[in-house]
Amino acid sequence: xxxxxxxxxxxxxxxxxxxxxxxxxxxxxxxxxxxxxxxxxxxxxxxxxxxxxxxxxxxxxxxxxxxxxxxxxxxxxxxxxxxxxxxxxxxxxxxxxxxxxxxxxxxxxxxxxxxxxxxxxxxxxxxxxxxxxxxxxxxxxxxxxxxxxxxxxxxxxxxxxxxxxxxxxxxxxxx
Length: 175
What we know:
The chain is built from 5 helices and 8 strands. Strand 6, helix 5 and strand 7 form a beta-alpha-beta unit.
């Protein structure tokens, strides 16, 4: 079905998804004008964690999106905890294996892995002071919940994901 759909598109509609912002990919395929999201997700429950906390996610659909610094996440978690934050890891799995690599949640985080509903994840994110993640769906959800997102990205160009002033990207070493 996909190949038939692509064959029927005019050449201009078949933009390479790696060369345009992800916000434009759907618009390009559907031939619609790009518009910003109209809905900001809001929590459905009151805050459950009284202390200040940060949410992180270290896994994505491919390890190429991951931050593979062997001590990076542990250093970030240690620093945040010294500042007095609780650090919640929202990855779906404690550990995942992909393309011969193991991506594991950092030590000393609070394990919030599991099959949470979208509404439950929104509730977890909405009260966080900020979110730190990679180019993944949880980063996009945190952005849609309207909390600050620190995006660590080594595989995509600066303009590929949503706009955040807190983007970490070094094309000299990561690409």
